[in-house]
Design a protein that fits this description.
The structure holds 2 protein chains of 2 kinds. By secondary structure, chain A is an all-alpha fold. Chain A has 2 domains: about 1-30 and about 60-230; about 255-415, Orthogonal Bundle (Fumarate Reductase Iron-sulfur Protein, Chain B, domain 2). Chain A is about 65% helix and about 0% strand. Chain A contains 19 helices and 1 strand. In chain A, helix 4 packs antiparallel against helix 5 and helix 11 crosses helix 14. Chain B is an alpha/beta fold. Chain B folds into 2 domains: about 10-130, Rossmann fold (3-Layer(aba) Sandwich); about 140-260, Rossmann fold. Chain B has 11 helices and 9 strands. Chain B has helices at about 10-15, 30-35, 35-50, 65-70, 75-90, 100-110, 125-135, 165-175, 210-220, 230-240, 255-260; strands at about 1-5, 25, 55, 95-100, 120-125, 150, 180, 225, 250-255. In chain B, the strands form 2 sheets. In chain B, strands 3-2-4-5 form a 4-stranded parallel sheet. In chain B, strands 7-6-8-9 form a 4-stranded parallel sheet. In chain B, strand 6, helix 8 and strand 7 (about 180) form a beta-alpha-beta unit. In chain B, helix 8 packs parallel to helix 11. Chain B is globular and about 55 Å long. Chain B starts with a strand and ends with a helix. The chains are: A mainly alpha, B alpha/beta. Chains A and B meet through helix 9, helix 13, helix 17, helix 18 and helix 19 of A and strand 1, helix 2, helix 3, helix 4 and helix 5 of B. Strand 1 (about 435) of chain A pairs antiparallel with strand 1 of chain B.
């Protein structure tokens, strides 16, 4: 009974802290702008099945992609066991879902094997991070805290997997020793159970309890650390794929407020016909965290700083300052800084902004809009749209752009082409055109 | 060999005569003004003429789609250009548009619909692929029999619009030696000129993007770099010069490869 009470308190505490954290984060979304609507649910479920469950985009880098897929698929299976542990803990029973029969055996066996595979994958990941100089994990945005963040999460996952393996092995060892029926199948556990051969049944049981509590309490703690780390990814990535853009990568979002203005300019009569609106004038583009559409903020929370985007960015590869990963991290950091203040006072101003204080003009103008970053992102984050929204702010609100770009604007305005040529010359290419006839 | 003069049909003239072509051939600013790329426009016009496609160009009435302005953040200027073009298309009752420039293709196809401009927009590569498949374009494989050709994917055909295989099929119709760079298809490296970079100096870095791409090219050492975008053409042609490869390799647009193999 004591065990149940302790467990219930731990669970309640986990949910309380978790709800508090999530409620805070949800409030930040109220600061953001209306984004694109989430329609075409069928198509979205398909993309989620493909990109999230199928891990298709992470396989663009096959070897590490495979290791990640093992961890992801393993988590999915092991989650089932964790749910069972919660039921067991609350009601003081053991292996509560074993009534599922062969399916239970299958899930337990798969989870047991995955625990070992994940542990191996995590060791590889830790080794890469600690001992190898992986370029993808470097960059101006990768501070010491980013590396600590990653290593803490990996270590927790490793301990989670080792405790699960220990738990399964001790369960098999103890159950066999007392001659009870084993519920579920544990291929790795069976193998490891021999470790407990010489020990007394009581001490094996104590070890089982230690592994059991370590595993479940660590899950509770991990769940509450995640929202404060880049590993919030664990919760956000699958939904992020679900809410991601369905349009071709080349398409930019239309600014309807600009369309209204341009139509008024082109047809002065419409100015009288259009009803006067009292709506406050919206800022063009993105200057600060609250100007982004909610979808972009969602993207930033899902980013786990893997750096695949930056590794394929032509600007970054050739030594320019732009890093698509940094753009996402900066948005998240700026919202964390300004969001709480804005919630208290909607006119809050600290004389800082996402553009310039976090992301320089130099970074923004280096983008070639090649969409390599968006194509590469394993969870369909769209970095170019945010970069272009910030260019929109610079150009339309501040009139700030490199001189050559301003000249290009002038050319288009004056002669309908980005270069300084007359429309009269548009047919020069047709001169003396001949074709050979056989 | 005899030659025949080609008159390029202009929309306004056709309309004055009460005729209506099936396609608008959208030439684009690079197609009209860039000296190197004008040859591509001419090549493609020859193909259209050879195939007896019913088309016309806007000529002096054509104006920028607004793409470079939009990618550089000037939504106002983009929309002014776009709405003006949409009005013009409406006047000429245009429903089908052929483009050569992938940037024009992308914006007409994906972005004009948001402003009420809905057309069937076709990139010339798709058209060439279709005509070759249908047997209407019988290309000669002799011309490029011994040429190693590599294809540089333009971002706005590839990643932006998922057109990867069509250009490769067209190239394979003229040559048996299509060699792929390490970074190809959706992994292809940008030439560095998109997103209005064409019109400005690059930001400070340690290398130009087109030189990074040229190193991919040099690894496969082709005789021809095939491109399908005016900006890529500028960058790759520059790349050949910078790397002193003018003796070793040439940069042709896919339309030019077809014209050469047809002997037009």
């Amino acid at each position: 009974m004591t065990k149940q009470i302790v467990f219930a308190i731990a669970l309640l505490l986990t949910f309380a802290v978790f709800s508090y954290t999530i409620a805070r984060i949800i409030r930040f979304f109220s600061l953001t702008k209306k984004g694109f609507p989430i329609k075409d649910l069928g198509k979205r479920f398909m993309i989620m099945a493909e990109v999230a469950l199928g891990q298709t985009k992470i396989f663009r880098r096959p070897i590490l992609g495979f290791l990640h897929a093992v961890v992801f698929w393993g988590f999915c299976v092991i989650l089932f066991g964790s749910i069972e542990m919660v039921i067991d803990g609350l009601f003081g029973i053991e292996k509560s879902l074993s009534f599922l029969g062969w399916f239970y055996d299958f899930l337990m066996a798969t989870g047991d094997i995955f625990a070992l595979l994940i542990a191996i994958a995590i060791v590889v990941f830790l080794f890469r991070r600690v001992f190898l100089h992986v370029k993808r994990f470097e960059g101006i945005e990768m501070k010491k805290i980013s590396h600590i963040d990653a290593n803490i999460a990996l270590t927790i996952i490793l301990v989670l997997m080792l405790s699960l393996l220990g738990m399964n092995a001790a369960y098999v060892g103890h159950t066999m020793a007392i001659g009870d029926e084993i519920h579920g199948a544990y291929p790795v556990g069976n193998y490891l159970a021999s470790i407990f051969a010489g020990m007394s049944t009581e001490s094996v049981l104590v070890q089982y309890e230690i592994y059991w509590w370590t595993h479940i309490l660590l899950i509770f703690i991990f769940a509450n650390i995640l929202p404060y780390s880049k590993h919030f990814h664990v919760f956000m990535s699958v939904p992020n794929v679900f809410i991601s853009r369905l349009e071709p990568l080349g398409k930019m979002r239309n600014m309807d407020n600009v369309t209204r203005e341009v139509k008024l300019m082109m047809d002065p009569n419409a100015a009288f016909a259009a009803p006067a609106t009292d709506a406050p004038i919206e800022r063009f583009g993105v200057k600060d965290a609250e100007d982004v559409i909610w979808n972009s903020y969602f993207n930033s929370l899902s980013c786990t700083e893997c750096g695949r985007c930056t590794a394929v960015c032509p600007a970054n590869i050739t030594g320019k300052k732009l890093s698509p990963r940094k753009v996402m991290m900066d948005l998240r950091a700026r919202m964390k800084e300004k969001g709480p203040q804005l919630l208290k006072n909607k006119d809050f101003n600290d004389n800082k902004s996402l553009v310039r204080d976090y992301i320089s003009e130099e970074e923004l103008w280096a983008c070639t809009t090649c969409n390599a970053c968006a194509k590469e992102c394993p969870i369909n984050i769209n970095q170019p749209s945010l970069i272009l929204e910030m260019r929109r702010y610079l150009v339309m609100e501040e009139g700030s752009a490199p001189g050559e770009i301003k000249a290009m604007f002038n050319n288009i305005e004056n002669n309908g082409a980005p270069w300084q040529y007359s429309p009269e010359d548009r047919l020069l290419w047709t001169k003396d055109l001949e074709i050979n006839v056989q | 060999m005899e030659t025949r003069k080609i008159e390029i049909p202009v929309m306004a003239d056709l309309f004055a005569r009460g005729e209506k072509p099936e396609y608008l051939f959208w030439v684009g600013c690079a197609g009209a003004y860039d000296d190197r790329y004008k040859k591509v426009t001419r090549a493609f016009a020859k193909i259209l003429s050879y195939l007896n496609v019913s088309y016309a160009v806007l000529g002096k009435e054509e104006t920028c789609t607004g793409d470079p302005a939009r990618r550089a953040g000037n939504e106002m200027l983009y929309q002014m250009q776009a709405l003006q073009n949409i009005e013009l298309f409406k006047a000429y009752e245009i429903t089908k548009i052929i483009t050569i420039c992938p940037h024009c293709y992308n914006i007409l196809k994906n972005e004009y619909p948001d402003l009420g401009g809905n057309y069937e927009v076709i990139n010339y590569i798709e058209l060439l692929d279709k005509y070759i498949k249908e047997g209407k374009l019988k290309v000669n494989t002799d011309t490029f029999k011994d040429s190693r050709i590599t294809y540089h994917d333009p971002c706005y055909l590839g990643r932006a619009n998922d057109i990867y295989e069509e250009p490769r099929r067209v190239i394979k119709s003229v040559s048996n030696h299509l060699v792929e760079m390490d970074r190809n298809r959706s992994f292809a490296l940008c030439c560095g000129a998109g997103g209005a970079q064409m019109f400005k100096e690059a930001e400070k870095g340690n290398k130009e993007v087109f030189l990074e791409r040229m190193e991919d090219v040099l690894k496969v050492n082709p005789d021809i770099i095939a491109t399908a975008c005016p900006f890529c053409m500028t960058m790759m042609t520059d790349g050949i010069k910078y790397k002193n490869q003018e003796e070793n390799m040439k940069n042709y647009d896919i339309a030019e490869l077809i014209v050469m193999s047809l002997g037009l």
